[in-house]
Amino acid sequence: xxxxxxxxxxxxxxxxxxxxxxxxxxxxxxxxxxxxxxxxxxxxxxxxxxxxxxxxxxxxxxxxxxxxxxxxxxxxxxxxxxxxxxxxxxxxxxxxxxxxxxxxxxxxxxxxxxxxxxxxxxxxxxxxxxxxxxxxxxxxxxxxxxxxxxxxxxxxxxxxxxxxxxxxxxxxxxxxxxxxxxxxxxxxxxxxxxxxxxxxxxxxxxxxxxxxxxxxxxxxxxxxxxxxxxxxxxxxxxxxxxxxxxxxxxxxxxxxxxxxxxxxxxxxxxxxxxxxxxxxxxxxxxxxxxxxxxxxxxxxxxxxxxxxxxxxxxxxxxxxxxxxxxxxxxxxxxxxxxxxxxxxxxxxxxxxxxxxxxxxxxxxxxxxxxxxxxxxxxxxxxxxxxxxxxxxxxxxxxxxxxxxxxxxxxxxxxxxxxxxxxxxxxxxxxxxxxxxxxxxxxxxxxxxxxxx
Length: 452
Description:
Blueprint: H1 14-31, H2 37-44, H3 47-65, H4 75-100, E1 110-117, E2 121-122, E3 128-135, E4 138-143, E5 147-158, H5 161-168, E6 172-178, E7 181-187, E8 196-205, E9 209-216, E10 219-224, E11 228-234, E12 237-242, E13 246-250, E14 255-260, E15 264-270, E16 273-278, E17 282-288, E18 292-297, E19 301-304, E20 308-312, E21 315-322, E22 325-331, E23 335-339, E24 343-349, E25 353-358, E26 362-365, E27 374-379, E28 383-387, E29 393-400, E30 404-406, E31 414-417, E32 423-429, E33 436-442, E34 446-450
Parallel strand pairs: 3-7, 3-9, 4-8, 4-10, 9-11, 10-12, 11-13, 12-14, 13-15, 14-16, 15-17, 16-18, 17-19, 22-24, 23-25, 24-26, 25-27, 26-28, 27-33, 28-34, 29-33, 30-34
Antiparallel strand pairs: 1-5, 2-5, 5-8, 6-7, 18-21, 19-20, 20-23, 21-22, 29-32, 31-32
């Protein structure tokens, strides 16, 4: 350095060294589960500037005592603080992101699995069993013995097998007794942690009342003699061979219920709903964006969604509702339906029919003469009715700005057509007393055909 050149301020490096020590110690505590680094940084981050300022005051005082010049803040220190904050932010995000957004998984590390097997315990034959898990599959089966058996598997996703072994020692499944009730749930971790899942296989007495709740994972319940209640945020549900009522609540996934003697209720949101062979009723309340299928529902169907409000009192055949389509075949019960933007096809629905639809065609086909009244109102779409030529009925059909095409004539049937394009058909057909048929449509056609 030449004479006359200004002395360059120096720093002792105390701040940088202490900062690295403190942040390294905090991250170490966070990794071993003794500290929630996210909460600490969120509430106490201003301490960084207090610590920074205090350290710089100490460095300045020390420099004055030594007769040298000390700078306040160097670019290197600024970059060090920013870099450490980025590193800490990544560490916190890896843990907090799955908790804040449980529907999304961050698959970091490798999964390591460990078996779980609890000692069987004797319980009341009609005990209430409540099962709650975070992530993992849950299977519930029945037994004729008054015994609770729990086996399973815990899966831990980490970057090393040694870390997985350490975490595994604190993770288990617990069955807590409260009177004749039992609460079964995993322990030793936050259920919202996407790095840990626990699969459970639970065997309970056949007459137990079972409630299952899962955040993410499939649920299967079979062969129960009493009520079953199941809910999940994300996962498929399958229930079969039950005697009591079945209540399903979900947000994402498919539902399948087969061979149940009770009522079935499905609510929430999801994909496909399939219910087969129920001696009770079926109620579906919510938005299910794939197909809804039902076969042989003795006490009928109640279906409520944004575009459909349907009641069918009995179904001996097949029901299917998909995006924009509704099909019902071989139903002896009464049908009342209000739909929009749905094409409807009914075959041999022999009870009373009341349909209110818009923007979708309606087609009815009967292989035998209808015995109950038929009322159909369909806006901006066609109506097609096919009945045997031997049928007797009383009809009133109105088509606004469209035509009525009927293969039935004679008797007191009278068809008229106005200059504005409106069509009207009214009268009686056949010698016997028959049902009353009311058809209303607009801007499309009404067709009345003889069943071949």
